Amino acid sequence: MKKLITLTGVILCALLVFAACGEKSAQKENEAEKENTPDQVVRQYFAYWANRDQDSMDRLVVDDQKPEEDDPDITLVTSLTLNSCMEVADELKEEWDPELYPDPYDFAYVDTDFDIAFEGGESPGYADGNYQERFYLIKETEDSQWKIVSRGLG
């Protein structure tokens, strides 16, 4: 009987440790999102993309720009490496396109360079290889978080 109680105690301790580790990991992701500079948002987006976490990716995107269903490439990704991620300096920004989002409080561009690979070597819109894309981000209000509005070839 004592062995059963001891074994139960050990299993309970192990479960508590695993639960605490999971909570800390989720807390780190949420803290990274709260820091919320444009390049940090894009870096977090890539981390979620590499982990095939569509729901978390969607949290970083303006509501009306979220896909109605999962991005077709997310389930096929076998590897994704963000090589560089840098916010475009203010003096190099082009004029904001109101078709992306009308009258944002603030906007930013983040240029990325990444390598991606897929099961079968391709996905709609991509094939295995290196890409440079520009991410377009906005703040809707002074106090709001940076959100991704669009991305395209940089």
UniProtKB/TrEMBL annotation:
Q: Which InterPro entries does the record associate with it?
A: DUF4829
Q: Which residues form the signal peptide?
A: 1-19
Where is the DUF4829 domain positioned along the sequence?
Answer: 40-150
Reading the lineage from the top rank, the first entry is Bacteria
Keywords in UniProt for this one? Answer: Signal
Q: Which Pfam families does its entry note?
A: DUF4829
Keyword check for Signal: yes
Protein's name according to its UniProt entry: DUF4829 domain-containing protein
What is the originating organism of this protein? Anaerovorax odorimutans
**Lineage of the source organism?**
Bacteria, Bacillati, Bacillota, Clostridia, Peptostreptococcales
